[in-house]
Amino acid sequence: MGQLIVAPEGTPAIRFGVCQRCLSMDTRAYTCHHGQCRYCRNCLHLGRVCQCDCLTEMDITTPIETTDLVMPFELSAEQRHVSRQLLIWWASRTSGLVHAVCGAGKTEMTFPVIARVVNDGKRVLIVSPRRDVAIEWADRLEATFSVPITRRYGGGDKETIGMITVATAPLLVNLRHVFDYILVDESDAFPFAFDFALWWTLRRAGKGLFLFVTATPTVWQRQFPTVHLSRRYHGHDLPVPRLVRETEQAILDFCRRYEAAPRLLFVPTKPDLVRYGELLAANGFTYQAVSADTDERTDVLEWLEATNGIVLATSIWERGMTVTGVHVAVLDSSHALFSSRAIIQMAGRAGRKPTAPTGDVVFFYDERTFRQDKAIREIEEANRR
Amino acid sequence: MNCLVCRKPFAVPWSPATLLKRDWACPDCDKMLTPLNEGCPRCGHPTVDGATCGDCVRWLALGLDLTVHSLYAYDEAGANWLHRYKFGGDVVLARQLRDVLRATRERGAVYVPIPLSEERLRSRRFNQAELLARMIGPTEQVLVKAEVSSQRQLGKEERRHRTNPFAVQQLPRCGKIVLVDDVYTTGTTLHQAALTLRRAGAEQVSAVCLFRTLNKSKMRPI
User: Fold this and answer.
1) Angle A370-384/A340-347 helices, nearest 10 degrees?
2) Is residue B154 over pLDDT 70?
3) Into how many domains does chain A fold?
4) Domain range enclosing A269
5) Which of the residues A133, A194, B70, B109 could staple to B176 if both were Cys, CB 3.0 to 4.6 A apart?
6) Would you say residue A91 has pLDDT above 90?
7) What is the pLDDT of residue B155?
8) pLDDT, position A299
9) Residue A351's CATH number
10) Across B116-126, average pLDDT
């Protein structure tokens, strides 16, 4: 029940070469002051644990508070249906999946249930795969709720646990059985989908009650009771992607056609940023490139909105960001890294604001793949429902 | 293979050594530290055409002759490296410098690490110099150290006029003793240890040091 700390008594910190705090196998042998020992290289940032250290759980002592909820806007009828279902699930302590299309207002739909959980005296955790998304969550929650929001991501406050915590998964490793309700945002995204140890840290941090929120659930997540929402909150259809054969001319035509609007071009890998960037620069376009190495991603976002420029992005921007009136192109969409879920999310960047509810989405292809077809089919299906 | 230092994946060129060596550092991380090649013959500090540096002249004037083999310059990258190794406790990092350290090995020498005080050793869990010494060659714990305050905050003059905290436990049988330390800033530690050993009857004493602080640099002393 609480935070794992290094203490003179307790369970050994490393057992069978597995770090009991972060569950990594990257423990290394070395010579301690009393002989052979191991230490964990994976969680050095939390303070080193050695085989000769012990871990104990320290109770969370922050007081339990109640909160007021000021909704930023009135929920639509469909959104209210979803949030009512979430309240029912909370009452019966059921895990569930919210399958809502990109731009359906998933964040706002979950506010009533978060308020209910907090007022029941339970702790809520909101996990998101990326720091940018976590920051946005925390800002929106701060505007809505009266209790302080704990920000537990890189650069945030990492010590205390309040009633509502916004976190990225790697910073939860030293928590055990703390949160009564875990909201997993974009639950199919990169760190959760591939890193099995992160699932274990997440399960360990909570008490077994999850809410998965995503536009593109995995097969595993579909086993949970699901509530669907296939309409954006402004009521317009999702833009259906067009398939265009990729030639240099076609890419330049796309950029020229929407001269007066921001354009977002997704590329599969970082070397592609350079390759396509040279093509754009040779034809007189100014652009900015965004990848995981870019430090000021929010600055680039502001630049894109302010100057109607062109941004080349890797899949780092595939989720959680909103640009008004953007037109999206997925370059080399037949690349093996672009799963159907990824390109659905990229297509979902267009037309998210009620002021600009449509946008052009183009998949440039060298060859047609089932992934493209599946993405288009699923978007059309959501529009029909 | 993941890089030992930055932990990012990179390709290791295949050679028979690929099978034997576990810890590889990527070329970028290998180039981070600045090796000291030509310089003062007694401490490795870069000087004009290999003249003896001012610090060493002062030590010689005191009658203390100790040749210190310094391997790397203690610049920003070096300080970061050492901070990770010593205070962060990421001990495996020393494997990166294994080949360089091993190249300094001499025949028939015993490597004596500068000891930590009992209390410091318990809180840090390891002796950073001892782990380096083990990487070079046969190690023997010859010296013991009394509890003194940390040198990190002290200035140059204060450091030089400390009382000698070292004492000899038992002198090894062989004639050649090489002291091992992590940083050479003023040289007080190494010279005091060498003096103690000489007084106890050691014949040949020299030293190996991982980092040499460059004078007039704005680095914080460690």
Assistant:
1) 50
2) no
3) 3
4) 242-384
5) B109
6) yes
7) 65
8) 81
9) 3.40.50.300
10) 87
Q: What is the percent of chain B where pLDDT is above 90? A: 23
Same domain, A163 and A96: yes
Mutate to test the interface with A, among B95, B116, B126 (most CBs of A within 10 A): B126
Task: Provide the pairing of β-strand A149-152 with A210-214.
Answer: unpaired
Do A352 and A256 sit in the same domain of this protein? Answer: yes
pTM over 0.80: no
Q: CB of A220 within 8 Å of any CB in chain B?
A: no
Residue holding tokens 């080399």?
A332
Q: Residue B113: list chain A partners with CB under 8 A.
A: none
Indicate whether A335 belongs to any domain: yes
B121 touches chain A (CB under 8 A): yes
The nearest CA of chain A is from the CA of B85 a distance in Å of 11
Separation in Å, CA of B90 to nearest CA in chain A: 7
Interchain proximity A31–B126, CB inside 8 Å:
yes
pLDDT band for position B221 (50/70/90)? very low
Residue A46 within any structural domain of the chain: yes
What is the spatial distance between Cα B7 and Cα B23, in angstroms, rounded to a whole number?
11
pLDDT of residue A59: 82
The verdict on residue A145 lying in a domain is yes
User: Of A104 and B79, which is predicted with more confidence?
Assistant: B79
How do residues A154-172 score in pLDDT, each as one tens digit?
Answer: 777 667 788 888 988 878 8
Distance, CA of A367 to CA of A246 (rounded, Å): 9
Regarding an ipTM greater than 0.95, the answer is no
* Interchain CB contact of B216 with A (< 8 Å): no
Q: Does B87 touch chain A (CB under 8 A)?
A: no
Residues in chain A within 8 Å Cβ distance of B88: 44, 48
A108 sits in which H/E element:
helix A106-109
Question: What pLDDT sits at residue B218?
Answer: 44
A294/A365 same-domain check: yes
C-alpha to C-alpha distance for A120 and B91, rounded to whole angstroms: 47
- In terms of Cβ atoms closer than 10 Å to its own Cβ (0-12, 13-18, 19+), residue A12 is middle
Select from A174, A207, A229 the last residue of a domain.
A229
Interface test with B, best of A6, A48, A52, A53 (most B CBs within 10 A): A48
DSSP string, A322-353: --TT-EEEETTTTSTT--HHHHHHHHTTSS-B
In this structure, the answer to whether residues A308 and A188 fall within a common structural domain is no
pLDDT for the residue B150: 63
Contact B134 A31 (CB under 8 A): yes
Residue B91, chain A, CB below 8 Å: the answer is yes
% of chain A with per-residue pLDDT over 90? 15
Share of chain A above pLDDT 70, in %: 97
**Are A214 and A339 within one domain?**
no
CB neighbours of A185 closer than 8 A, spacing ≥ 6?
A106, A126, A127, A128, A129, A133, A137, A213, A214, A320
B127: contact with A, CB 8 A cutoff: yes
| Chain A residues with beta carbon closer than 8 angstroms to that of B124 | 33
What residues of B are in contact with residue A44 (Cβ under 8 Å)? Answer: 88-90
Among the partner residues B91, B122, B130, nearest to A39 by beta-carbon distance: B91
Average pLDDT score, chain B: 84
